[in-house]
Amino acid sequence: MKSQNLIDRDFEAFFGALPGFVVVIDLQASVVAANDNFVNDQRSSREHVIGRNLLEIYPFIRPMVERVAREKVAMDDTIADGSSRRIAISYKPILKDGTVSFIVLQITDDTQATSTASPETNQLFQDLFEFNPAALVISGARDSKIKNVNASFLSLFEFDSKDELIGKTSQELKLIEHDQHRGDAIRALMEKQKVVTGEGRIRTKKGDFKWASISVILVTIDEEPCLMAVMIDITDRKNAEDKIKSINENLERTVVQKTKRVFEAELEYRSVIEQANDGIFISDSHGNYLDVNDSACKMLGYTKEELLKMNTMDVLPAEDRVSRPPNFDALMKGQAMLTTRRLQKKDGTAIPVEISARMLSNGKMLGIVRDITDRKRAEDAIQNVNAQLEVKVLQRTEELQKKIIQLQESEEKFYKAFHASSAGITITKLSDSTYADVNDAFLNMIGYSREEVINHSAADLALVVDMKHREYVLAQVREKGAVKQAEMTVRRKSGELIHVLSSIETITHNSERYAINIIYDITERKRAQEKLEAVNKELESFSYSVSHDLRAPLRSIMGYAEILQLDFGDRFDDVMKSHLNRITNSAKKMGRLIDDLLEFSRVGKLEIVKSSVETTKVVEKNIADFGLTHSTKPKFIIHELHPSFADFSMINQVWFNLISNAVKYSAKKEDPIIEIGSYRTNDEVVFFIKDNGAGFNMEFAGKLFGVFQRLHRAADFEGTGVGLALVKRIIDKHDGRIWASATVHNGATFYFALPMAKSKGK
Predict the structure, then answer these.
(1) Which of 121, 159, 178, 736 has a 20 to 30 A CA-CA distance from 479?
(2) Which among 31, 152, 145 has a CA at the least distance from the CA of 95?
């Protein structure tokens, strides 16, 4: 409601308690608020009073309402209402943005009134002063001291209380910029001018400046002339005016610039039109040429003077003059037209052209004409090619039909192979991991029926024991498209656990990705492997025990041989000394063999503790240590070495053995060279060490990593035949791979691959 926009609840309570009839009207005299006395006098409800035109009740107030609205000042009037009563009416305007928005009327019975205003009237004035949304200030006309301000004034000037202002002048407080005009305002009011209005800058308590609309009237309070100023904040309006002024200045500059550009554009027009490769024709509404460029003249073989005497119909072949181009009606309505036609040159030949035409704002017609003779030839050639292509398409269609038949036959073969395979095969939707199809071998493997499996996932059936590992495998499938030989433990319907080996490839069919999973039951193989591991552990334990037990008698042999050498060496002839040396050397060799066997057995029993290993540091340290203990110094070439995820002690042993092996077998070369490097695959780091030494015959490569297996004579290269076997055992414990390639007398390259570190949860 409008009254709710005008006053808040506290003011409404005060408003209702005022004496007499109090009514607030808008500039159309419609009632927007009224006190209870007025409502009761009308013998109606408030809802019926609000919105009613007050002139219907008091038609005699029209002149005063119009005057108050026009002059923006409060007025009083006393009139007879047609009975024996006389009523007093006070009109108080409420200003907003310098204009009257509402008028407050207080109507009282003045039959017994005196010339002195009633206390109620004084109270009404005071309340209207305090609650006025405009900033009001009353100051003495003689001494300029502030006598009163309302809350809106405090808010506008950002003061906290009236005490900061009352008794002081606006000049002292520096409230108004250029306050020297105050005297002029007082003189104007004294000369019977009802109100002095203007705009000025005001200064707040904090020193900020604002713009205000200021209206000043002369009032008498306690028989003293005073000035009452009404101030309304117009800062936003002034800022907007400044912006508009700036915009207008920019517009003026823009207009000047655009005018200059238009002039320049006119100068450029002739240059552009003459330089255009396409023919440009400008004609009037009847088709008479008004302007053409040089390209148009060259295209048709006429001079410019000849064309300017011609009409658009004159350059058409006779047989084409009877037809109008398509979209011609739309062209006449202002739309652009693009069409192809034939134009006749001066020599009588016709050429195909493409015409882009549009109506200009001045009623002239602009046509841009392009000679498309070459394009038409190309189109004709394309038509010939298309005809040939159609023949080829027919041939290709026949081939495709044959391939479709072959594909159908392939699908039939796949279906037969799918269901006849002894391996379990499943087809799974990657979108939701549900089984789309499975073969009988898979159903026999897990003990479920087809109905129990189709459209269900492995998770639904609780098939996979380690679901985290399964999710990791599926993630690899989605990312890489395939997984090779992933081991899993599967729970059959009966609850029995079986071990399977799974290889997965992905296909796309009808925009849906599927995983084809070939599954082998390796439960028996796992059991055999476990038995083999148990036997190997027993063998390791036995070899460890035997090697350990052989140490004591070996020490005795070495001891007695040393005693014989010390006590009787000078009495031995050469044959006896040769026998004694042979005993000593054999015992030393056997000692090394026992040490290697013990190390081989020890590695098998150790638990590996993996961490990130800086391969470069490990290799450099082994090379440095090797240089301190060996006279042979080959040239080492070190390429990029990626970090590995391994047991530090064990991987250090691997590098020591492989470097020693490379040095030993390249020592007889004149310039021994050893290269060491690495590279990454999808899930492995592959290391290699290459030498240019003796090499070996790849026919015997299968024996390379066996215990006591040697591919060279001991007389040529010393060794126990355990070093490479130890390397393979360490790599196997890391789930890695090791292999080698070589050529006899041209060196060998040993490779080993270690899995990359897996993130948590995989």
Answers:
(1) 736
(2) 152
Closest among 670, 671, 660 to 717, alpha carbons compared: 660
CA separation for the pair 289, 233 (Å, rounded): 65
Structural domain including 716 reads 607-755
Report if residue 386 sits inside a domain.
no
Average pLDDT across the chain, whole number: 79
Residues 656 and 729 in one domain: yes
For β-strands 135-140 and 224-233, DSSP reports them as antiparallel
- Rounded CA-CA distance 265/417 in Å is 79
Q: Count CA atoms closer than 13 A to 133's CA, side-chain side.
A: 15
Helix (H) or strand (E) holding 413: helix 373-420
Q: Which helix (H) or strand (E) holds 220?
A: strand 209-221
Pairwise CA distance, residues 78 & 65, whole Å: 14
Domain count, the chain: 6
Four-point Cα dihedral 723, 724, 726, 731, nearest 10? 150
Which pair of tokens denotes residue 268? 């450029």
Specify which of 54-58, 325-329, 435-439 reaches the highest per-range mean pLDDT.
435-439
Q: What percent of the chain has pLDDT over 70?
A: 77
Structure tokens at 181: 């005009």
Range with lowest mean pLDDT among 8-22, 355-369, 520-534, 557-571: 8-22
Which residue's structure tokens are 């060998």? Answer: 748
- Is residue 651 in a domain? yes
Amino acid at 289: Y
Amino acid code (one letter) for 441: A
Verify that 86 and 148 share a domain, yes or no. no
CA dist 590 and 596 (Å) reads: 10
CA distances from 482 to 175, 415, 425, 473, 596 (A): 84, 21, 15, 9, 42
Query: Cβ(56)–Cβ(48) under 8 Å?
Result: no
Give 682's contacts (C-beta < 8 A, 6+ positions apart). 480
Give the chain's radius of gyration (CA, Å): 55
Per DSSP, 713 falls in state -
Q: Give the pLDDT of residue 762.
A: 45
CATH of the domain at 349: 3.30.450.20
